[in-house]
């Protein structure tokens, strides 16, 4: 059979008087012009806010029901992590174990997979007698090692009032405490060590901590000092990742959009706490607590 001339075939094959090759070209152009932009539009995703952890300074005495707002947030958001600072008496107290209210409530926190509890230890900007700080660390460790109460143990230590200006003696003080935490068996195999200078520290201190609170203060101070820009500069100069940084903001005015603040903070810091209380900031839960945790879970 003699092969048909392909050029003649294309030119003479028509639909409604229009060459088919031209119809196919027009159809392809329509797909590009109409379908592709729609696919791109629906396929495009806005950059999401990075995930964060709720850092809770839990200085609320655990009378029956007092910790319920925290437990409600924890159960409402099983995929949201909570780091909870337990502080019975500006530290663990002088007894081997805290009182019965603490021994009843702490295991209720620790049974949740999305919770890490850490014990509060004061350093007084490394002016405290180091033997007292070490004793506090050992006491918290013993809650797990030597207590008959299951689920009482801590998973790390929160070192309050750590310095921001570098001094070799202060660095040695904090290194010594970090070594004590990591050597204690009661904190598990990967204990969390938190420093709280409450401001941006000399980055050399950060090597002895997993997490550093780089801002603790009123919302007005956060605004006044342009914290977000300051944090960006600090991260660039110190190579500090957001997961190593925490921020605590109190005295949030009712007129401020809390959800916008949450997004702003989470872009810089991996762990965040916000409260609207303007006094005794951490002694109770503010009215916006559940809204704040809802926003953190988004």
Structural class: alpha/beta
Say how many strands there are.
Answer: 10
> What is the helix content?
25-40%
Anisotropy-based shape:
globular
Contiguous runs where pLDDT drops below 50 for at least 5 residues: 1-12, 31-46
Largest sheet: 8 strands, parallel, barrel
Query: CATH homologous superfamily of the largest domain, by name?
Result: Glycosidases
Q: What oligomeric state is this?
A: single chain
- CATH class identity of the largest domain: Alpha Beta
CATH architecture of the largest domain: Alpha-Beta Barrel
DSSP strand content: 15-25%
Estimate the mean pLDDT confidence: 88
Total number of distinct structural domains? 2
Order the strands across the largest sheet as they lie in space: 3-4-5-6-7-8-9-10
**Euclidean distance between termini CA atoms:** 70 Å
Radius of gyration: 28 Å
Description:
With 298 residues, the protein is α/β, with parallel strands linked by helices. The protein folds into two domains: 6-43; 53-297, Alpha-Beta Barrel (TIM Barrel), CATH 3.20.20. 40% of the residues lie in helices and 17% in strands. The N and C termini lie far apart (70 Å). The model is unreliable at 1-12 and 31-46 (pLDDT under 50).
């Amino acid at each position: 059979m003699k092969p048909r001339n392909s050029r003649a075939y294309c030119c003479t094959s028509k639909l409604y008087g229009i060459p088919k090759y031209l119809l196919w070209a027009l159809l392809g152009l329509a797909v590009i012009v109409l379908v592709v932009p729609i696919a791109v539009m629906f396929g495009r995703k806005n950059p999401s806010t990075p995930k964060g952890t709720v850092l809770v300074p839990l200085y609320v005495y655990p009378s029956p029901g007092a910790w319920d707002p925290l437990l409600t947030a924890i159960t409402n958001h099983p995929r949201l992590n909570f780091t909870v600072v337990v502080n019975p008496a500006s530290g663990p107290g002088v007894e081997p174990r805290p009182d019965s209210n603490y021994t009843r409530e702490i295991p209720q926190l620790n049974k949740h997979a999305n919770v890490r509890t850490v014990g509060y230890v004061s350093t007084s900007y490394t002016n405290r007698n180091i033997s007292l700080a070490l004793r506090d660390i050992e006491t918290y460790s013993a809650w797990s090692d030597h207590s008959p109460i299951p689920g009482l143990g801590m998973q790390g230590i929160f070192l309050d009032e750590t310095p921001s200006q570098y001094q070799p003696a202060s660095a040695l003080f904090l290194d010594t405490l970090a070594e004590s935490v990591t050597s204690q068996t009661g904190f598990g195999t990967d204990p969390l060590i938190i420093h709280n200078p409450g401001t941006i520290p000399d980055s050399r201190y950060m090597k002895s901590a997993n997490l550093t609170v780089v801002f603790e203060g009123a919302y007005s101070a956060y605004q006044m000092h342009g914290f977000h820009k300051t944090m960006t500069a600090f991260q660039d100069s110190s190579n500090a990742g957001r997961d190593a940084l925490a921020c605590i903001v109190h005295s949030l005015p009712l007129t401020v959009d809390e959800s916008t603040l949450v997004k702003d903070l989470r872009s810089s810091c991996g762990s965040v706490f916000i409260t609207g209380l303007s006094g005794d900031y951490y002694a109770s839960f503010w009215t916006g607590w559940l809204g704040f945790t809802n926003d953190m879970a988004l």
